[in-house]
Each structure stands twice: as structure tokens, then as C-alpha cells.
């Protein structure tokens, strides 16, 4: 009898001692690792260093959120759902992890009923959402669907509040290989992995250091890790300069080690440092209003009675 990886993981988990404590770090790290493995887009293959930095930046934030939920009397924790979700993550069972009705969506369930006070959405019972102003306590209200008022409710996923009424978000433009296209607008580029060639959408190519590359909306040959450690300069994929060197012609440095400051690659660009452009912050931070801000700069929910 053939046993799937998920079935085997569930069997192994079922044999674990019942007193084994819930491990927030192991759970979050397994979930994030699986999310990376399940992400098979062209963008993920084109920017692996940046993607990994984003994943790592989310670890501590996600662990803090998980532990906060465990300690929250307004939130119910399901050990069976936790076990099944962890097993799915460890087995890299992408279908289960993506399922809206799978175990990962029911590890935590809110206890707060309609019209009662909430600090964040996880506290609200199924079918409800925490309607609140930024950094303020809110109220659990039924989730509004397209056409419903959103004056005092949150719109469902895939909709937004448009002048007091939930409206469907525009469907993103889809590009497919072989579709007719116009060079001036392209075929989505790195987001889709397609470029407009001879007025037809064609697959882009990933190239490494020393290889010929292109830039711009019509780029076909994409220099891997262009947003962090390499850049396409003079039609060649080059390693970005390191600490102590002059910044590249584009004003970039190896973002894993430093940032471009006044034309030189320096050990700067950490959260809190000043910046003049996106090249003034190292990997894991972004330039916002002249200051490098961490990807993990997420405010904790308010304390509510």
C-alpha cells in the first residue's frame, strides 16, 4: 500500500507523546519554509534572495502573533488542526496548505460574538471581522459581501470599500504564452515571467553573473537576484559591489552587506538609518519617508477590555 508524505507525517504526529508542548517556532518555521517551497512562480525563481529575506523577516513577527493567540482567552486553539497543519507543512503538501477549508485555517478560532469588542480579527467568531480604526479597539461585525454597506463592516476578501459600498476588486490582467501583445505595455514582465516578443507573449529567461541580460519593459533575459546582489549593467549581469567599493552605475550595492551612501557602499541602511532612495537601505528594509523601515515593522494590537 502506497503511503503519501502527508499520511506518513500525520501517522508520525499521532504517535507523538500527548504532553508534547505546542512549539510556535517549529510551526511558523515549517509553515514559512513550505510557503517558499510551494511558491513556483517566475518571480520566486528570479528573486530567491529577496524572497528568503522576506520569509525570514516574518519569522519573529509570526511567532509573536502565534504566542499572543495562544495566550488570548478570546481565541480558541485547536490542537488537532495544529497537528494536521504542521504535518502538511512538513510534508510540503501545497494543496492542503492553500485550502480555505483545510486545517491551517482553523488552528485559531475567535470566541467574540457580533457587536462585541475586539482587538484584532482573530478574536471574532467565524463569519465575523473586527471593524476598527487604526490602533483602536473595534467591534466584531458580519463580513460584508459585494453590494453590502461597508460603513460599519469590513468587506470580504476580493472586495474593497468604495464610497460606503463593497465593490469587487478589478480582476488582475492575466498574460499567457502566445497571447497577442503590444511592446509598449509588455506581458507582465517578472511578475508573469513573460515578455512581448514579435507582438506575442513569450517566456522570459533567467541568466546569471556574466551572462547577457536586458532591462526595461521589453526585457527577455532577467538577471537573477537583480533586487539584491546583482544588477544588469551594460547588458551584462554583474555582481553588485561590496563594502568599501563605489556604488554601481545604477547606484546599487550588495544589499545583503550594506547600502549605497553618498556614492560608496557602506555598512549602513539598517532600520532607523536615513536614506535617499531604495538603494540606501539594505536587504530586509525599505526606504520610507527618508528612513529605512524594517519589513517587520508591524504594530501590536491594542489592549481592549
Structural class: alpha+beta
Q: What is the terminal-to-terminal distance?
A: 55 Å
Number of domains: 3
- Rg measurement, Å: 23 Å
Largest sheet: 3 strands, antiparallel
**Widest sheet: strand ordering:** 3-5-4
Proportion of residues in β-strands:
15-25%
Arithmetic mean of pLDDT: 91
Q: Please, how many helices?
A: 6
- Percent in helix: 10-25%
Number of strands: 17
Uncertain regions spanning at least 5 consecutive residues: 7-19
Shape: globular
Along the chain, the helix and strand elements come as HHHHEHHEEEEEEEEEEEEEEEE
Report on this structure.
The chain is built from six helices and 17 strands. Helices cover 23% and strands 20% of the residues. A hairpin with a 6-residue loop joins β4 and β5. The N and C termini lie far apart (55 Å). α1 crosses α5. About 4% of the residues have low confidence. With 305 residues, the chain is of the alpha+beta class. A three-stranded antiparallel sheet has the order 3-5-4, with no helix packed on it. The chain has three domains: 99 residues, no CATH class; 52 residues, no CATH class; 90 residues, no CATH class. The radius of gyration is 23 Å and the shape is globular.
Name a few traits of the molecule:
single chain; 305 residues; alpha+beta; 3 domains; two-stranded antiparallel ribbon; 6 helices; 23% helix
